[in-house]
Please model this.
Amino acid sequence: MSQAVLNPVQFFHGSVHDFEPGQKLTVEGAHAVGSGDEHVFFSSDAGHAATVAGYRAFSSGKEPKVYQVHPEGEYEGDDLDGPGSYRTKAPLRIGRRVQ
Model:
């Protein structure tokens, strides 16, 4: 009997920082995002992550980058940023750069 292979949800983080695969983004790290919020933000929409990276690039003068990320703990929807947006207090592990 064959089993169907399910494609897991992919998550993305937009940034102007350079990350390596396996590196972790944490709330305590310099790469946490938000206005005093104790979360790291990510999205299931690579286009949304690219938009966020573009805003950060515009304000910093750096190159926008989008990374595939893997949450390493619980996360929740971020209703303020729209559908497909999430936040976590757990680390995000960098998978690969996609843009």
Summary: The longest strand covers residues 65-71. The chain is about 15% helix and 30% strand. The mean pLDDT is 86.
